[in-house]
Amino acid sequence: MTHRCEVKELQAQPTLIVRTRTSVDELGAVLGEAYGAIAAYLGELGEYPAGPPFSGYHNEDMRDLDVEIGFPVARELPGRGDIHASQLPGGRAAACLHVGPYSDVEPAYTALGQWMAENGHVPTGVAYEIYLNDPDETPPQELRTQIMFPLA
Fold first, then answer.
1. Residues 6 or more apart from 121 whose CB is under 8 A from it?
2. Which of the 8 DSSP states describes residue 43?
3. Can you give the pLDDT at residue 38?
4. Rounded to an integer, what distance in angstroms lies between the CA atom of residue 113 and that of residue 122?
5. Is the entire prediction scored with pTM above 0.85?
6. CA 79 centroid distance within chain
7. Is the pLDDT of residue 1 over 90?
């Protein structure tokens, strides 16, 4: 698959997140648990996500990923327990769309990394994945994941 890469201008977005560490083997379960906890908390607050779920990867150690898991929200909301108020950064970000199973996302990262290097873009180090459709309702080959690196 050919990946179309581009620079997007983003507005900062309030979020509610859980930040944790996990191995890539346990990632699916950890994501599901965190999204469930945040969704339940939003329900208690009478609030809703303001967009699709996301994860932010602060390192590349597949045995010990430092990951933030969350939802954008319409306004700043208080955290509770393991759920923290945060925000997705505003500014320029390099982005590309991956279509297919989550397990096949690596070529999109490779294409985006190569494109950033060829075009003089320097990422800040955090990689975000925004999950544009629901894996419970979408066949794996049709899953859409926006990959973004905020730029320095």
1. 7, 94, 115, 151
2. H
3. 98
4. 9
5. yes
6. 19
7. no
Torsional sign, CA 93, 97, 102, 106: negative
Please classify residue 126 by burial: count the beta carbons closer than 10 Å to its beta carbon, then call 0-12 exposed, 13-18 middle and 19+ buried.
Answer: middle
Note the pLDDT of residue 2. 78
Q: Which tens digits make up the pLDDT trace of 43-64?
A: 999 999 999 999 999 999 999 9
CA distances from 98 to 5, 61, 103, 106 (A): 10, 21, 11, 9
> Kind and range of the H or E element at 101?
none
Give the separation between CA 66 and CA 68, rounded to whole angstroms. 7
* Mean pLDDT of the region 91-112: 96
CA dihedral 78, 34, 112, 142 (to 10 degrees): -120
Supply the pLDDT for residue 84. 98
